[in-house]
Amino acid sequence: MSKAFLMFVVALLVGCATSMPSGNGTPVDQVPMYGGMDRSAIPELKAADEKLIKDTIEYYGSREMACAAFLKNGFTYYRKDDLANAMRRFNQAWFLDAQNAEVYWGFGTILHDLGENCEAMQMINKALNLKPPTTQGFYPDAGRIITLCAVSDKITSGEEKSRMIERSESLYREAEKFEPDKAYLYYSWATTYYWQGQFPEAWAMVAKARLAGGKPSERFLSLLQAKMPEPATQVEDPT
């Protein structure tokens, strides 16, 4: 996305929204899907949205292609830990193509980083109910977020938590079939076992992550070591 065009989009789609708080006082462009606000009911936003659609289609060729560009930009901000700008881009992408599953992955990753795990899971469920992306990292992220909601939620019944854990496990096993970054996959899987208190299984996944060329964080390893010393034997190379 060119810098000039990006500045144009920010002026159109973000400028009005940032001054409009949601129900809890948070700017609506910092809430997934603009907090459900009816943008067409506000003349200034409606006009800006209509112009955005027209100009982005002319620039990218379609709303879907424009959405993909905003998603790419959003994940770039996310990797820089700029969650505010990432959320703005994901909202813009959602506005352009609400059927793109990666939009909800973007929302979910930000909510996860904010500690809102069950809200993040709701976004992941939306992505899974559409055409789930096979983009690198989606399935491990989905599995981790679902597990985090299961272990942190104080209201959900034990039976439902078990179903959530089973679903998380199935997503990881599915990811093994096509996820190119096996180190990321196994490290993520290790963290879910840690949160569940399954420390031998966590160490087994750490070993797999290492064999795949990964280097789990020292902080995580120290937390796991405090729960259970690292086993002397390692798993065999899965390849």
Rg, alpha carbons:
20 Å
- Write down how many β-strands occur, each being a DSSP E stretch of 2 or more residues: 0
Which secondary-structure class do the elements indicate?
mainly alpha
Calculate the mean pLDDT score and round it: 87
Tally of helical segments: 11
Query: End-to-end distance, in Å?
Result: 39 Å
The percentage helix is 55-70%
Give the percentage of residues in beta strands: under 5%
Give the CA-based shape: elongated
Low-confidence stretches: 1-8, 10-19
Sheet with the most strands, sense and barrel status: none
Query: What's the SSE pattern?
Result: HHHHHHHHHHH
Provide key terms for this protein.
239 residues, mainly alpha, 69% helix, elongated, disordered N terminus
What can you see in these coordinates?
This protein is an all-alpha fold. It has a domain at 1-96. It contains 11 helices and no strands. It has helices at 3-18, 43-60, 63-79, 83-96, 101-113, 117-129, 138-152, 158-178, 182-196, 199-211, 218-227. Helix 1 packs antiparallel against helix 2. The chain is elongated, with a radius of gyration of 20 Å. The two termini are 39 Å apart.
Write the layout of secondary structure elements.
Blueprint: H1 3-18, H2 43-60, H3 63-79, H4 83-96, H5 101-113, H6 117-129, H7 138-152, H8 158-178, H9 182-196, H10 199-211, H11 218-227
Helix pairs in contact: 1-2, 3-4, 3-5, 4-5, 5-6, 5-7, 6-7, 7-8, 7-9, 9-10
Report a brief summary of the structure.
It contains eleven helices and no strands. The protein has 239 residues and is mostly helical.
